[in-house]
Amino acid sequence: MKVQIVSDKQAGGQAGFRVFEDALQNGAKVLGLATGSTPVTIYEQLAASDLDFSQLTSVNLDEYVGLNADHPQSYHYFMQEHLFNAKPFAHSYVPDGADLDAAKATSEYDQIIAENPIDLQLLGLGKNGHIGFNEPGTDPDSTTHKVMLTDSTIDANARFFDNADEVPRYAYSMGIGSILKAKQILIVAYGEAKAAAVAAMIQGPVTPDVPASYLQTHPNVTVILDEAAASQL
Ligand code: GLP
């Protein structure tokens, strides 16, 4: 894993932007995108750039089950606001959280990923080491699946809702196996609250207890951290 330590989120946005720019120059056609607060500064840089995404495809990691695409806390909406309004792609895919038929929604999404192999996958990191919504204990070979969110994840995401009761209890997420198929992976983490998960991801054993630790088995991973997130390395 290539680890790059930056001074703050703004510098992280610039460093992340350069990884995207290089991937595009090297012919990337399918970008795997993520939500959460961490990618926001990268999206700001991408949105303000002269990069052209109009011939590219994006595939997002996850979506809450039960939220329509126009719900302000849905990941569809997030992507629209933070990137797609400024930079439309030829095709943008996000799991369909409005489809309550989990078998259908997840197999359709696996088909989309199979038809659009991901060149560069962007990831944030959960405080408990999750990637996408792959919580501790997830099978490393998993494909897209329905996930029951842990209390830790519900609490962490409650800040985006009026209260914790409104946070959906389930999500559809690409699996760890789907993520590891990406040709290149960029994972970003900021802040002291992520420091233990960062150390476990990079220096700990490869274990289902820390889903991000499986990234150690991938040949092309870049990690961007601020000093607080890197403080336990
Ligand atoms: C959510 C998302 C993850 C994200 C994580 C961390 O659980 N499903 O993809 O990485 O939150 O979010 P943040 O970047 O806001 O810390």
Walk me through the structure.
- The longest helix is centred in the N-terminal third of the chain and has 17 residues, at 9-25.
- Helix 1 packs across helix 2 (40-48).
- The protein is α/β, with parallel strands linked by helices and 233 residues long.
- The chain has a single domain, classed as 3-Layer(aba) Sandwich (Rossmann fold).
- Strands 1-10-9-6-2-3-5 form a seven-stranded parallel beta sheet, with helices on both faces.
- Helix content is 30%, strand content 18%.
- The model has no long low-confidence stretch (mean pLDDT 97).
- It is built from seven helices and ten strands.
- The radius of gyration is 16 Å and the shape is globular.
- Bound molecules: 2-amino-2-deoxy-6-O-phosphono-alpha-D-glucopyranose (GLP).
- 2-amino-2-deoxy-6-O-phosphono-alpha-D-glucopyranose binds next to helix 5.
Largest sheet: 7 strands, parallel
Q: What is the CATH T-level topology? A: Rossmann fold
Bound molecules: 2-amino-2-deoxy-6-O-phosphono-alpha-D-glucopyranose
Strand order of the largest sheet: 1-10-9-6-2-3-5
Q: State the CATH architecture.
A: 3-Layer(aba) Sandwich
Output the helix-strand order. EHEHEEHEHEEHEHEHE
Low-confidence stretches: none
Using DSSP, what is the number of strands? Answer: 10
CATH class: Alpha Beta
Helix content: 25-40%
**First and last CA, distance:** 13 Å
- The secondary structure category is alpha/beta
The figure for the number of domains is 1
Shape: globular
Mean pLDDT: 97
Count the helices. How many? 7
Radius of gyration from the alpha-carbon trace, in angstroms: 16 Å
Name the beta content range.
15-25%
InterPro entries: Glc/Gal-6P_isomerase, Glucosamine6P_isomerase, Glucosamine6P_isomerase_CS, NagB/RpiA_transferase-like
Family: Belongs to the glucosamine/galactosamine-6-phosphate isomerase family. NagB subfamily.
Organism: Levilactobacillus lanxiensis
Pfam families: Glucosamine_iso
